[in-house]
Amino acid sequence: MGFYQDTPWHKACLRRLCAPYQVVILALEEHRKSHGKYPPQFEALDPSLAHSQQAFAAMKRREGFSYQSEDGTNFRIFKKLNSDGGVAYSNQTSEWFYWMNDDVSWPLN
Question: What are the sequence ranges of the domains in the chain?
Answer without folding.
Answer: 8-107
